[in-house]
Give the backbone structure.
Amino acid sequence: MATFPALKPNGRTYIPGQHPNTALQTLDGDETGVRHSNAGLGHILRLRFNGLTTDEHFEIVSHYGLHGRFESFDIPSSITEGSNITFPAGYVWIYADTPKTTYNPGVVSVEVSLELIPSYTL
């Protein structure tokens, strides 16, 4: 399995997912929930990389070009280094959106959104 480029982000935002469920009303007017799975869905990790070299920028863009939204990958430990972020075991990553590149004079910045999904086999 491929791995995301081993770059250290300048910023990261993690949005935990939720378990799929349906809210149902009981006959006496109360509301209850029915959980459909033990797998949480919708985990999003947003990464910001500032001051990239052209080679580092190419690593991210070419990784997206090879994987897109359809081929899963792992992330290296450098992505979460220095944070207390932990993820569920047995999950893999896909791109949630296209990487956004900003060019300022002499500075290349990229924002990447990754989605954590349950591992699957084809």
About this structure: The mean pLDDT is 87. Helices lie at 54-67. The two ends are 14 Å apart (CA to CA).
